[in-house]
Design goal:
five-stranded parallel β-sheet, alpha/beta, globular, 7 strands, 2 domains, 422 residues, single chain
Length: 422
């Protein structure tokens, strides 16, 4: 046995080495986006909703697309939405983009401490928001503000007050800006912990099924969070119990300064991991509003029909910085978004509406200005209740509230001590 081991060691020759993935573009160099594996628009089949998870293997490695380069909706995934619905989708994306731009400037003016924009990813949250039903529960991360801004019943002023941590902050200053919470809108409290959204969504969906309810869950993580153990735990439970849940992986190519290949996206796809776990999986063009809506409706129908979970990898690009604390020019080319093969989701839906004769450059510009005016007015209203600049923050005494249904004696005493010391 000893002689055999020595022989193997002696004849193997080359020393072992590790493979460390590298991005295909760095500052000063153009990114080679050939790694994306982009399928032609309309080329990927649309299976019935009761398809076996094992039969979605090629769908997890191809790319579901509806809009072609000329703005035409082609192929079996075209949802055939009416023009009014398309215009509402476009308006919601423009609203999200204008909101982000305003709040980014507000952070630079020190009116809020922190912000994370979703520039380039607006179609994903908007499209799925339109595909879900009232009562469904979303477990989002910190870049899905479009799930809220696509709705008519969410106050933009209230969202801004949360960002400003002011006297009207619905979270009373207890959450980092952008970490919204809207139970009435099916928007679970945003958490900065990575991948917890998946296990929470699966658990909520299982509870809905146990109760015999009709509501489904939607969980959201980024490509980097797929490297967390919670991701794999969620897939196991979702598969075993056929939880009525949509598991969304937003692959925007970068987890802060780490390229998506570091999380395992180099030689395979993130959607492929779902198939390996026995879950129906799709890889979808996240910058194509029609594809997003269609894939989300397909997955929601599977969940509501007791056919189990669906994992969707949304291929998109984070056009801006990871947050206001990040400088992406340090780790990727400055013009990356302009070169991204899947383009701008707003421009693509606009082009489609123009192609079908339901929109024009003039109408688009008028809508953009109208929405920007609405966002500016909302900011002015929110700032009436204070920003970090003027120090109008929630009363510190409120920290003792909302902890117990009835405040215990020791907290009553501590609160009195705080108030007495003023």
């Amino acid at each position: 046995m000893t002689e055999h081991r020595a022989s193997v060691t002696a004849t193997s020759g080359k020393p072992l080495h590790l493979h460390v993935p590298e991005p295909s573009g760095r500052p000063g160099y153009h990114t080679d986006f050939s790694y994306l594996q982009v399928s032609p628009a309309g080329a990927v089949r649309r299976p019935p909703v009761d398809v076996s998870p094992a039969d979605t293997g090629e769908l997890a490695h191809a790319l579901v697309r509806v809009l072609d380069d000329a703005g035409n909706a082609v192929g079996p995934w075209s949802p055939h939405l009416d023009p009014d619905r398309l215009r509402k989708g476009l308006a919601a994306m423009l609203r999200t983009r204008a909101f982000d731009a305003r709040m980014l400037v507000a952070q630079r003016q020190k009116k809020t401490s922190f912000y994370m924009q979703s520039l380039g990813e607006e179609a994903i949250g908007t499209g799925q928001a339109f595909a879900l039903a009232p009562g469904d529960m979303c477990f989002p991360t910190y870049r899905q503000q479009s799930l809220l801004l696509a709705r008519d019943d969410i106050s933009i002023v209230e969202m801004m007050c949360q960002l400003f941590s002011n006297q009207r902050d619905p979270m009373k200053g207890r959450q980092l800006p952008v970490m919204y919470s809207y139970k009435r809108a099916g928007f679970f409290t945003v958490s900065g912990n990575l991948a917890t959204q998946f296990i929470q969504a699966v658990g909520w969906a299982m509870a809905s099924a146990i109760k015999g309810d009709t509501r489904i869950a939607s969980g959201w993580i980024g490509d980097g969070a797929t490297a967390e153990a919670d991701f794999h735990t969620a897939l196991t439970f979702a598969h075993v119990y056929r939880a009525p849940v949509i598991l969304n992986v937003v692959n925007n190519q970068w987890a802060i300064s780490t390229f998506q290949a570091i999380a395992g996206g180099e030689a395979t796809t993130f959607a492929g991991r779902g198939v390996g776990s026995g879950i129906a999986s799709l890889r979808v063009d996240g910058n194509d509003f029609l594809a997003v809506y269609s894939a989300s409706r397909w997955a929601a129908e599977r969940a509501r029909s007791n056919l189990g979970p669906t994992l969707i990898e949304w291929v998109t690009y984070r056009a801006g910085a990871h947050s206001t604390s990040d400088d992406p020019s340090k780790y990727r080319p400055k013009d990356d978004w302009a070169q991204f093969p899947l383009g701008d989701p707003v421009a693509r839906l606009k082009a489609h509406l123009i192609a079908i004769g339901e929109w024009s450059e003039e109408r688009h510009e008028a809508l953009r200005k109208e929405i920007e005016g609405q966002i500016a007015a909302a900011q002015k209203e929110a700032e009436r209740f204070g920003t970090l600049v003027d120090g109008h923050i929630p009363d510190p005494a409120s920290m003792f509230e909302d902890v117990y249904e009835t405040m215990p004696a020791h907290l009553v005493a501590q609160r009195a001590q705080l108030l007495g010391g003023r």
